[in-house]
Amino acid sequence: MSVTATMLVTTLLTTVVAARWCLRHGRAALLPPLLLLMGGIGALDVLLVAACSLKFVDGAWFPVVVAAVLFSFMSTWARGSAALQAAVCAEQPPLAPFLAWLAQEPIQRTPRVAVYAVADADVVPPALTLNLRHYKVLHEATLVLSVAFADQPSVPDAERLRVAPLAPGVWRVALRYGFKEHPDVPAAVARVCAERGLAQPAGPDAVSYFLGRPLVAARPDSRLVPSLLGGGMSLGSKWAFAAMHRNARGAVDFYGIPRASAVELGAQVLI
Q1: What gap in Å lies between CA 95 and CA 1, rounded to an integer?
Q2: 181: which residues sit within 8 A by CB, 6+ positions away?
Q3: 205 has a pLDDT exceeding 80
Q4: How is residue 254 annotated by DSSP?
Q5: What is the pTM of this model?
């Protein structure tokens, strides 16, 4: 049953990918014969799945249960990550007013290059907010870094890096990688420093990387069962995501940042 179900899912996914390709490349005339062909194959797959479903109680239930468990973990991670990013962005002020305020405030500047990672480039990085709140200093060269992954295996070097000045001593750095590429943030930072005439990184202590490490917790008003109309995550799903987030691979290792140069600042975030 698992083989025939895999065939059916493969047919559905192939149909979606082929239809998107036709629409994206202006080949809408190919859609009717494509749907007719894949509909016939899909009908045959449905018959095969129906025939094999008679063996469900004889052991075919096991791969279905395993697939359901794996899907629940993946969907919990996806929905939890989206909820976490939305909660973090909701607590952070917009970047443009913050830069205007920063230009008027007599913030003490300290030498070195600082890199602040942020998921949404339009809001202030959480680590930057915490740094200013507790230490009242700003580095002479501050890079607001965002990393995005494209829906393609690799990204050409000419399209990988975008740098834009935001304020005196503050730049926005946008990196793009393909889903098969491993991000190398220190190499990109060294390139930015060379192009902008900043202090050249001469070792692991030449650049400071400030990363946010949110401590995920469920809201006190979370429901045991989410509303069918409102959606959202149940209390159990939030607890599961919080446990998964605590044990997930950190950004320091994922982005290839030297541990001696990384500073992780955390705060509790309710989802």
Answers
A1: 53
A2: 153, 154, 155
A3: no
A4: H
A5: 0.79
